[in-house]
Amino acid sequence: MHFLNIFSVFKRTVWRLALKAGPFAPLISMLLLGLVILSLSRLGLVLWKFDRVHATGELLAVMYQGVRVDIIELGLIALIPLLLAPILAIKRLFNIWKWLTYSWVLIAIVLLVFLEAATPGFIMEYDVRPNRIFVEYLKYPHEVMGMLWTGFKVHIFAGVLFTVLAFLGMRYWMQPWCNAQSTWTNQRLWLVWPLIFVLTLLGIRSTLGHRPANPALFAITQDSMVNSLILNSGYSVFYAIYSLQHEAKSSEIYGKMDKAEVFKITGAKDTELPTLTTLVPSAKRDKPLNLVIILQESLGAGFVESLGGKPVTPNIERLKDEGIWFEQLYATGTRSVRGIEAVVTGFQPTPADSTVKLSLSQKNFFSLASLLEKQGYITEFIYGGESHFDNMRSFFMGNGFQQIVDQKDYKNPVFVGSWGASDEDLLNKTHEQLLAHYASGKPFFTLAFSSSNHAPFEFPDGRIELYEQPKATENNAVKYADYAVGEFIKKAKASPYWKDTIFLIVADHDIRVRGETLVPIEHFHIPGLILGADVSPKRIKAITSQIDLPVTVLSLMGVNAQHPMTGTDMTKIPEDYLGRAMMQYNYNFGWMEQTQPITDKMIPNQVVVLREGKAPAFGVYDTQNKHLNETPPPENATALEQRALANSLLPSLLYTEQRYRLP
After folding, report:
1. 163 burial class (0-12, 13-18, 19+ CB within 10 angstroms)?
2. For the chain, how big is the Rg over CA atoms in Å?
3. Are residues 232 and 69 in contact, defined by beta-carbon separation less than 8 angstroms?
4. Helix extents (H) in 127-185
5. For the chain, which terminal residue's Cβ has fewer other Cβ atoms within 10 angstroms, N or C?
6. How far is the C-alpha of 246 from the C-alpha of 214, rounded, in Å?
7. By CB neighbour count within 10 A (0-12 exposed, 13-18 middle, 19+ buried), where does 13 fall?
8. Which of 602, 598, 589 has its CA nearest to residue 647?
């Protein structure tokens, strides 16, 4: 009874305030009631999982960031009624408006309560709030109800009870609105509506930053479960449904193949972890080396003179003679997250979004960080912008990265543009961090991701002699990015960590991937360089894919470990090695193979392009003229097509079955 009295007082107080907002009263009441319900639910979950929340040191942040998420969710729920308000909330149609908003608010709050009531059982089973799995299981009611009835009877009864109480409580809650009369003139409604609408949009956006809030923004700990507590279950499920549209296109758009045949062609094994292998490093070391990856935004081969491009990367040109230089290195895709996927996880591309953004890979998905963390390494991601962009923060924190440095962590940066702190600031910060890590005595893996070479191509004055006018062009931005790398390597060479560290400098993708061919292979060609420590100068002319790089750097570091990557250790290739590259271009999948070992004379490479709803196309890629020429199917067309198809299906299989991970 005491609770009912409190609820009654709360109801009268809220409605006294809400009714001053005239036709917007039910939406105001929904906001206030929703915030209380969702915050109490989150508090209960935090108390339940207090040990894990407290261990992160982010107890208060979990609660106040959670309120931000709740405002986003409630704003999204209010959006459709708000759009209809100028038409339906007028005096003549006010009864329709009352019925609509009454039903809308009642159903919305009941659904929110239902999802929150379902949350404890879901966390017990999956260690995360209801997400994509919750949505997918709706397709299997028989199996799911059987599972729930067997192991979750208490949760079923509790969920039903809370949902029924929520329905009855909301009918009681909405009584003042049932008796409300239209007191606003139409003119007043139309004058106030824009303000309410703009405030709602700001609440949904939840930030004045460069891009709106998303779940990655709230991934503030390494514990995925704790990060999910910041969200509410309605928002988590809503975002999962939204994300499913990006996963709808699987590699099966190219055709089907038995799983056994996929494994046979790709060399995988029909075991729990089909691609698991043990790396025997080419460098035998008493203590494995540190690793620094500098992932360069949009640095295609077209910006590197020795690769047939423009003379805007003089530092990379100079450095290429000091390490392992890849002359025929190809990106797997056209987006930064695809480059991250390849370089950091060694995962092959698919027509779906990069695994950086997909729900099933947000934890327990292999990455260099997850491997090296287990070997005692400090693992870190450094970025000049906002790390929640493209879901990077969430993916990294869930898969082995212990620390993230982003825009807010730069003190007095030299230059800040639309995409955050400049490459100069990024690499200055990287140098500071590496010195600190080295001084700690622990090995380290640092991923630094640049951003200056991105439209609108902003960078500080006085650093480079401009390649062209005006200043804000891609060529000038690349030259500045190259300058920043050059300055960083100078400092690194003079630092104590140089002799114990492998550096990989590689592009994520080319700047603008386009062309008239089915796959513009020339725009997948990127520079790649490994140097540092005792790396001997070498040029690798064989075709190399981005997915070969993480295996290669681990080998040079002297790391002896199991991993599921399918790339090749390019330090141990024989003279007759025939390389291959895979390139995802929208919904076309390009598979390119060498036909002969690389010599001074470039031999055209065989290419097959798998297409959605069409027969595969064949061609040869002329590396001299950088052009894909379509040809009739070659004699080995069937085998070539089957290799391509198997390699497009394998990563989707590994992802959906969650078999790309460490033991």
Report:
1. middle
2. 28
3. yes
4. 132-136, 141-151, 153-173, 175-178
5. N
6. 15
7. exposed
8. 589
* Cα–Cα dist 530/523, whole Å: 21
Q: Is 167 in contact with 113 (CB distance < 8 Å)?
A: no
Task: Give SS3 for 364.
Answer: coil
Contact of 630 with 605, CB cutoff 8 Å: no
Which CATH architecture is the domain 284-570 placed in? 3-Layer(aba) Sandwich (3.40)
Look up the pTM and report it: 0.84
**CA-to-CA distance for 226 and 218, rounded, in angstroms?**
10
The predicted-structure confidence for 79-109, as pLDDT tens digits, reads as follows 999 999 999 999 999 999 999 999 999 999 9
Q: How many Å apart are CA 285 and CA 444, to the nearest integer?
A: 16
* Residues with Cβ within 8 Å of residue 601, at least 6 apart in sequence: none
Collapse the DSSP code of 388 into the 3-class scheme (helix H, G, I; strand E, B; otherwise coil) and give the result: coil
| 468 beta partners | none
- The domains of the chain are located at 2-244, 284-570
Q: By the 8 A CB rule, do 605 and 628 touch? A: no
Strands 605-611 and 403-405: unpaired
Within 10 A of 651 (CB to CB), how many other CB atoms are there?
A: 25
Residues β-bridged to residue 581: 592
Least confidently predicted of 27-31, 58-62, 585-589: 585-589
* CA 295 to the chain's CA centroid: 15
Residues 361-371 pLDDT 10s = 999 999 999 99
625 vs 529: CA distance, rounded Å: 23
Q: DSSP H helical segments within 494-623, as ranges?
A: 548-557
- Give, to the nearest 10 degrees, the angle between helix 2-18 and helix 153-173: 50
| Contact by Cβ (8 Å): 189, 91 | no
